[in-house]
Specification:
The chain is α+β, with helices and mostly antiparallel strands.
Length: 690
Amino acid sequence: MATLEKIRSKGVLLVLVVGLALLAFIVGDFLKEGSNYFNKSRETVAKIEGEDINIKDYTAAIDQMTEVYKIETGKSELNEEMLTQLRQSVWESMVNEKILNAEAKKLGLAVSKDELSDRLIGNNIHPLILQRRSFAGENGQFSRPQLVQFLNSLDETPTSQEMKEQIAKAKTYWLFWEKQVKNEILREKYNALIAKSVTSNSIDAKMSFNDRKTSVDVSYVVQPYFTVPDADIKVSSSEISDRYNKQKAQYKEDANCAFNYVAFDIKPMKDDYTEAQNWMNKLSAEFKTTDDVSGLVNSNSDVMYDGHNYSEKTVPSMLKDFAFNGKAGDIYGPSFMNDTYMMARVMQSGIMQCDSVKLRHIFLVTKDASKADSLIALIHKGADFGELAKKYSAVKQTAANGGEIGWLQEGMQGVDKEITANAFNKEKNEVFTIKNAQGVQIMQVEDKTPPRRKVKLAILERKVVPSSKTYSKIYNDAKQFAVELNSDNFEKKAKEKGYIVHPATDILQTIDKVADIPLSRQIIRWVFKSSKNDVSDVFDCTTKFVVAMTTEVNKKGYKSVEKVTDQLKAEITKDKKADLMIKNLTAQLAKNPSLESLASFLNQFGAAGFEPTIIGKSTVAAIGKVSTPLKGNAGVYVVRTSNKTVNPQTLDVKMEKMQLNSRMSYSLPYMIIQDMKDKADIVDNRLNFF
């Protein structure tokens, strides 16, 4: 009872404690939920038609396209510029896919499994699949067996890590093209549906026919606008404002920015050239006489020595005459050209060797390696190498094609040097083996290109590059410049130091490169997050240091009247000149309505340019009559027509409509997707990530 009374006496305190505990629980749960929400928000790279695109999905799509590009081109390394292009390509594809799917869903359009299968591997294979080199036969044309073999390889059980990685890449490649085909089928359906509702009618046909029915010869006199000085024309600010308001819709713009910048080129300085020259002088004598050429070159030179042979096509051009007219031991240089010091030494001359060899193989995993001698014996006795490969080789991708590897070149990246070293020294049909930790490869030279002259060269080369001292000096110059800047003295300080100020205008959020500045995306990201007149720190752009000052940051909307004032003033000035010229020419024609007398009066002529209005009015003008003054693009015209010709052909409405629809079919797909983009709800947050 005493305990109960004690609890009652502390009732208010207990309610408060329990309440606070519940509040903490609720708030904690809310904060947890909120944290997840905000984390998710931070991971959203875009929102397209209400659908969030997570940065992980976007980067996965980039990785997929990168892998496909490598397979398609055979390149293993991609530079930053190429990666930037791939990112943009992925973005365009993703936007097109999302807005197309959203529109197709509204209309009930879809691609069935059977339909997709038919376009992938059936009787109606899509051009996107037909055009892939991966599915081509020996003649370079699409091969259904090659496609089937490729698809079968995706289900193989890998016997090594390398094989596992190859299968994973192949699956990535196929899934990419499968998705592209599906999207393309859907696009074709959508375009076909729209095309049926956008078609030419009889009125269009008649107008088109009449537009080209009549032709005339035209004599003309033109007074160019430049004959009236701009200073003679007064344009008020109210006139500019009125013109802007009337045609404001023309000045829509996406979010953009502008900035001024100074670029500090990271180039070698005098000490760097001296250091490179001293380096060459120090090594030149040893290079001429050493027996360990490989050790000397590979420890010092920019060009490694691996003993491969140069042909007349692959040898550096400046060494061609020296290499193929010399003998072993001959020395070239030292020479200096294009910021590079170079020496060369002929290691072996008079070599006759092919450029490429065609190989096939039988791969035996370690547990089956003991079969190698027996298989080689069978091959020497005339057994079919291809059939043995199909039966015994562990690499199913090549086994299905008789062990075919294809043509290899000497020094080809990604190919075991032991393989090429053996292959280029063997005769056609000769067999050799390569052993490693994974097993044994029985290899056969199927074919070789004709032998050609080659030479073995060792090249000692050093390109003059900025040293760390030079790098620091240039960086410190840029840093010092940035430190001294404020919003008012950017151009003044640059001029004092002899630096050139470069303008960058109308830069969109989606642009990846400014002028010739590599890795300049970082500058654009900074500018869009800055305010007008903000000055940046130093940007390291690989070959340049850059210091920038923001001059504009514009949100999506309309260009300001100030930004288009010059354009508007030029338009109004041109209109006023035209009015003045028309008034003066009309008065002159009233005195003497002759084209020749008008030409004599003007005594200054301009050439006709792009003038659709003048052409159109000429075709309906009275023959032989001098026209009233006509306002054109380049000046005011007075014309006189003659030799009017009317095409006697009668209108064929059906044929005319077919021609109009045919012309429309080329531009309609682009117009459709562009119209969907213009109307789509797209939020682009890529600037936060790239």
